[in-house]
Amino acid sequence: MERLSPIHLTLILVIGLVVIWPFGRILRRTGFNPLWCLVMFIPFVGTIALWVFAYMRWPALENVGPRSEGPKELI
After folding, report:
1. What's the DSSP call for residue 69?
2. Cα angle vertex 14, ends 13, 18, to 5°?
3. Which three-class secondary structure state does DSSP give residue 1?
4. Cα torsion angle, 63, 61, 41, 44, sign
5. d(CA 43, CA 47)
6. Of 46, 15, 6, 12, the residue nearest 36 (C-alpha)
């Protein structure tokens, strides 16, 4: 079996960070632990997790009331 060159390993690491970093930020903003983004590396489980996170109730929105009022004007 051939070994990967340092250039290939660096490229894999950079691409992994470019993909995983935004997912971690999104998960943090929605109230989940950013480490859940590591699930994206597991085939099929990452896709299922993305759908589950998209349609479940986000903890960050639990404390926010309805936005029926418009913005308050400063007088």
Report:
1. S
2. 120
3. coil
4. positive
5. 8
6. 46
What pTM value is reported for the model? 0.59
Q: 46 Cβ partners below 8 Å, 6+ apart?
A: 39, 40
Each domain of the chain, given as residue ranges in start order, spans 6-56
19 contacts 40 by C-beta, under 8 angstroms: yes
Q: What secondary structure letter does DSSP report for 72?
A: P
Residue 52: what residue type? V
Q: What does the pLDDT look like over 8-41, one tens digit per residue?
A: 889 988 988 888 888 888 888 888 888 888 888 8
Per the CB < 8 A criterion, the answer to whether 48 and 17 are in contact is no
